[in-house]
Write a structure and sequence with these properties.
The chain has 478 residues and is an alpha+beta fold. The protein contains 18 helices and 23 strands.
Length: 478
């Protein structure tokens, strides 16, 4: 994926296992399957029933655990995390899982998503005397748990979970149990698997294949999954739920071999490509997709259009990440480092270039230029999602409209800016139908489509004022 260049990043991946003699190692391999969800830091905490031990650091998973650190993580239970920062800075202090030691017990905690009332909760907690060690919104939950004081940990957790708002998939580990919780909208995917008598929980089902686990069920919105030596227990912390699965998981973030709410990601992307060909056919000679997340859609488009699919763009997997480059010039150079156009495929051809989305437009412009430099006669861009015109507050790091090209320009203007011969996006209805409506009786089939139409399934809490101000500013500019 070109997340590093595009500027569209999802927060994290989480994984946990209970009742396995090699818990930390299983967690390592599970996290390896989720590395695409976060490359800035990684960590694992294990329990042997008496003591919680952890290791975390900045960098890719293989670098964080390359000196035998796994050997010190003893026990039969473990949780782990790979991180991309949406809330909180890029520092070691914000790398998860967090490990808290209390007078009589310990708690490890990690989180995928973004809390939309974290700032107000943090201010409230600080007034009450809480001292925060990190800038991450994840730490808020730990303080809320300790302040509930019902005398029962699970009840304290339920109270705390009803205070936090937004998108969250939590994993918690104590000496005696592993716990998972999913927000009332189920924005982020979370699933339960099994290896014999051991249970695993992961952000994506692709991790189950890696560790040899069989799928048991998805975690539903508002659920609390408690796993201990007595087995699997399903509880709830709220009954006020509404399925709003992040549609960008199907479009862009999740691995194609994952299933979300029973729908295979590759199949959904391929159907979106087919629907795109029905809505936006163009006379051409060859179809190519932008690696990696657009390949499935490109195959679907080519099949439906009756055109050959070719590898017109090749990704170089052995270059440094480019999202940290300080200037736009260097970021654009990163596209050239990441991608190469195959002259033998595109020269003299009318090319249909399939991509999953356009964020700022700079990457699309550079890729169109690469294809033209390689001799493409025409470049027709087809996007397998609607125009991305609204920010996300639930775990994707775009939180203002100013950075979204579709919020500031018409489709014709975007086409001119990126230098394409034509540009068409998939319709909203086309996307919903292509994904397959995992929950057909709910709005948009149980999908969150806010990035495309501004229809947010929750109040925006701390972000409300800034969002409304950005809309007013947008109208002034137009």
């Amino acid at each position: 994926m070109l997340a590093e260049i595009k500027g569209l990043n999802e927060e994290c991946g989480i994984f946990g296992v209970w009742n396995h003699p090699a818990a930390a190692n299983i967690t390592y391999y599970g996290l390896h399957s989720l590395q695409h969800r976060g490359q800035e830091g990684a960590g694992i905490v294990s329990t042997d029933g008496e003591v919680l031990r952890g290791h975390r650091n900045l960098g890719l998973l293989a670098d964080v655990f390359k000196h035998g650190e796994l050997d010190g993580l003893k026990g039969t239970g473990a949780i782990g995390h790979v991180r991309y920062a949406t809330a909180g800075g890029k520092s070691l202090g914000n790398v998860q899982p967090f490990l808290f030691h209390f007078q009589e017990s310990s708690l490890a905690l990690c989180h995928n998503g973004n809390l939309i009332n974290a700032s107000s909760l943090r201010a409230e907690l600080e007034k009450q005397g809480a001292i925060f060690q990190t800038s991450s919104d994840t730490e808020v939950l730990a303080h809320l748990i300790k302040r509930s004081q019902t005398g029962d940990f699970i009840q304290d957790l339920k109270v705390a979970l009803n205070r936090v708002k937004g998108g969250f998939a939590y994993m918690l580990l104590t000496e005696k149990q592993m716990i998972a919780a999913l927000d009332p909208n189920g924005f982020r995917p979370l699933s339960i698997g099994r290896i014999g008598d051991s249970y695993v929980i992961a952000s994506e089902t692709c991790a189950f294949e890696t560790v040899g686990a069989e799928f048991v069920r998805d975690v539903e919105p508002g659920e609390l999954v408690i796993i201990d030596d007595d087995g699997l227990h399903i509880d709830t912390f709220t009954k006020e739920v509404k399925h709003s699965i992040c549609s960008m998981e199907y479009i862009y973030f999740a691995r194609p071999d994952s299933n979300i709410a029973g729908i295979n990601v590759h199949s959904a992307r391929k159907r979106s490509g087919k629907r795109l060909a029905q809505e936006a056919f163009v006379e051409a000679d060859v179809v190519t997709g932008v690696p990696d997340s657009s390949i499935s859609a490109a195959i679907g488009y080519a099949e439906e259009a009756g055109l050959p699919y070719e590898l017109g763009l090749i990704k170089n997997r052995y270059v440094a990440r480019t999202f940290i480059e300080p200037s736009q010039e260097l970021r654009e150079q990163g596209v050239r480092m990441k991608l190469s156009a195959v002259r033998g495929v595109v020269q003299g051809k009318r090319v249909v270039m399939i991509d999953d989305s356009i964020v700022r437009g700079t990457t699309s412009k550079r890729i169109v230029s690469l294809l033209r430099e390689a001799g493409a006669k025409e470049v027709h861009v087809r996007i397998a999602s609607p125009p991305l015109a609204y920010p996300c507050f639930y775990g994707i790091d775009i939180q203002t409209r100013n950075e979204l090209i579709a919020a500031n320009h018409s489709v014709d203007e975007i086409c001119q800016i990126i230098g394409a011969d034509s540009l068409t996006y998939l319709s909203e209805d086309g996307l919903v139908q292509a994904i397959g409506k995992p929950y057909p009786n709910e709005p948009y089939g149980g999908l969150c489509m806010a990035y495309f139409n501004g229809d947010y399934p929750t109040d925006l809490y701390d972000y409300e004022a800034d969002y409304l101000a950005s809309l007013i500013e947008q109208k002034k500019l137009k």
